[in-house]
Design a protein that fits this description.
eight-stranded mixed sheet; elongated; Rossmann fold; alpha/beta; five-stranded parallel sheet; about 35% helix; 21 strands; about 400 residues; binds cytidine-5'-monophosphate; 14 helices
C-alpha cells in the first residue's frame, strides 16, 4: 500500500455506536497508509470496542478520560488539538453530533474537537429515524456551517435490521476522503489569491450610506477554502459582521468601492488569481456631507450619484497571465448576462448565483451556482453549503489553470 498519509497526524474520534467495530479497520487503513493516529474514544465507545484493540493497532495508548486512571496524569486536549492535522470522528452518533454542534464539552472527544485547529470530518452512524430527525439534521447543518466536513451515511440494512439511511460510510471510502483532504491541502501551495467580499457602503453623510445586504459569507468561505488548500490569501472585505476562522488569511477592511479598488489593485500585483465575490455599489453620492443632512421643510430631495469604478474590469485590463473569476447575480436573462459580463470584464470564469433557487443568494448559508468558463465549458451544481460551493469553485479554478499543461 502506498504511504499517501506519511507523516500526517490524525485524531480518530470514536463515539458509542455499533459501527465502532468498523473503526478498528479504518484505523488499520490509516496506519497502513503511513499516518500517525491518536484514538480518542467516548466512555460509551468503549462499550462497543476495547481500547486494547485500538491501542494495539495504533501503537499508542487510547485517550478517553480527562485523567489517566492509574497515574492521575491529565490528558491535554489542547495539545492534542494542536497536534492534529485532521480529526475524523467515526462513528459519530446523534449524541456526539449534538454535543459538537452545541459545544457540550463533557468528554475528551468533544474537548479535543473544540481545541482542534485542523480540519474535522464526521462520519455519522445511527438508525434511520434518528438520522432523519429534525434535531439531528439541524445539528448536521450547524456542523457543516462551522466548516466540518460531513461524510454522509449510506443507505442499506442497519444493525437494527431496519433498512434506510444511517449506515456509517465504509472505511475504504473514509480513507479515500482523508487522502483527498491531504492531496487538496497542498493543491494551491505557493499560489497567492485575492478575494473581494461583502458589500460596499457609499457615504451620504456621517450617518447615512448607500449599501446592500451582501453578507460576505461566500467570499469568506472561498478565502478559507483556498487557505486550507495551502494558498496565501488576502481578503479585501467591505463592511461585514464576519470573523475569519483561519488566522492565516490576511484581511484588509474597506468601506467604499473606491477603497476596495485601491486595496484590490495593490494586492493583485503579486497574486496568481483573484476571485471577486463582492457586491460593489455601482454608484456613489457625488459628495459626502461633513454634517448630517437636515430634512427639508417641504418637498423632496435629490441625491446626485456618480458611477463607481468597476473593480473587476480594472483588474481584467491588467491581468495578463493571472486568473480572474467574477460572480453574477441576475434576475433576468441570467445566462446571457453572465456571459456578457465575463467577456466585458475579461474574466476567465463567472459564477452565476441562481436567484430562482430559495437556497441561493444574500445572507444564506447555502448557494446554488452554475460555473461558466471562458472556454465555453459550463457546469451546473446542486444547492450546497457555501463552504462546499467554495470547494467546487476552487476545484474548477484548479482544473482551468491546468487545462493547457
Ligand atoms: O455588478 P456586476 O453584476 O457587474 O458584478 C459582476 C462581477 O463584477 C462581480 O464579480 C463583482 O464583484 C464585480 N464588480 C466589481 N466592481 C464593480 C461591480 C462589480 O468588481 N464596480
Amino acid at each position: 500500500m502506498s504511504q499517501t498519509l506519511k507523516g500526517k497526524h490524525i485524531v480518530l474520534g470514536i463515539s458509542g455506536g455499533i459501527a465502532a467495530y468498523k473503526s478498528a479497520y479504518l484505523l488499520r487503513l490509516l496506519i497502513k497508509a503511513g499516518a500517525e493516529v491518536q484514538v480518542v474514544i467516548t466512555p460509551n465507545g468503549k462499550e462497543f470496542i476495547t481500547p486494547a484493540t485500538l491501542s494495539a493497532l495504533s501503537g499508542k495508548p487510547v485517550v478517553s478520560e480527562f485523567f489517566a486512571a492509574n497515574t492521575g496524569e491529565w490528558h491535554s486536549h489542547v495539545d492534542l488539538g494542536l497536534w492534529s492535522d485532521l480529526m475524523v470522528v467515526a462513528p459519530a452518533t446523534a449524541s456526539t453530533i449534538g454535543k459538537m454542534a452545541s459545544g457540550v464539552a463533557d468528554n475528551m472527544l468533544i474537548t479535543t474537537y473544540l481545541s482542534a485547529k485542523s480540519h474535522v470530518m464526521v462520519a455519522p452512524a445511527m438508525d434511520l429515524d434518528m438520522w432523519s430527525h429534525p434535531s439531528t439534521q439541524r445539528n448536521i447543518a450547524t456542523l457543516a456551517k462551522d466548516g466540518v466536513e460531513i461524510i454522509e451515511p449510506s443507505s442499506g440494512e442497519l444493525a437494527s435490521h431496519l433498512v434506510g439511511k444511517g449506515r456509517m460510510e465504509e472505511p475504504e471510502e473514509i480513507l479515500r476522503r482523508v487522502e483527498k483532504f491531504f492531496r487538496r491541502s497542498d493543491s494551491l501551495k505557493g499560489k497567492k489569491i485575492l478575494v473581494t467580499a461583502g458589500p460596499t457602503y457609499e457615504d451620504i453623510d456621517p450617518v447615512r450610506f448607500i449599501g446592500n445586504s451582501s453578507s460576505g459569507k461566500m467570499g469568506f468561505a472561498i478565502a478559507e477554502e483556498a487557505a486550507a488548500r495551502g494558498a496565501e490569501v488576502v481578503v479585501v472585505a467591505g463592511p461585514v459582521a464576519l470573523q475569519l476562522k483561519d488566522s492565516a488569511v490576511r484581511r484588509v477592511d474597506v468601506r467604499s468601492a473606491r477603497q476596495m479598488l485601491e486595496a484590490s489593485q495593490a494586492a493583485f500585483e503579486d497574486c496568481d488569481a483573484a476571485i471577486l465575490t463582492a457586491a460593489v455599489a455601482d454608484y456613489a453620492p457625488e459628495t459626502c456631507s461633513d454634517t448630517k443632512i437636515k430634512r427639508e421643510k417641504t418637498g423632496d430631495m435629490t441625491l446626485r450619484l456618480v458611477r463607481n469604478p468597476d473593480i473587476a474590469a480594472t483588474l481584467g485590463a491588467m491581468k495578463g497571465e493571472r486568473m480572474l473569476v467574477g460572480f453574477a447575480l441576475e434576475t433576468d436573462h441570467e445566462h446571457e448576462n453572465a456571459l456578457d459580463k465575463m467577456r466585458r470584464k475579461n474574466l476567465d470564469m463567472i459564477v452565476l448565483n441562481s436567484l430562482r433557487n430559495p437556497l441561493a443568494g444574500f445572507n444564506k448559508d447555502t448557494n446554488q451556482v452554475t460555473i461558466l468558463r471562458s472556454d465555453g465549458l459550463e457546469t451546473e451544481y446542486p444547492a450546497k453549503s457555501k463552504r462546499q460551493v467554495a470547494s467546487d469553485i476552487l476545484d474548477e479554478i484548479e482544473k482551468y489553470s491546468k487545462r493547457n499543461d
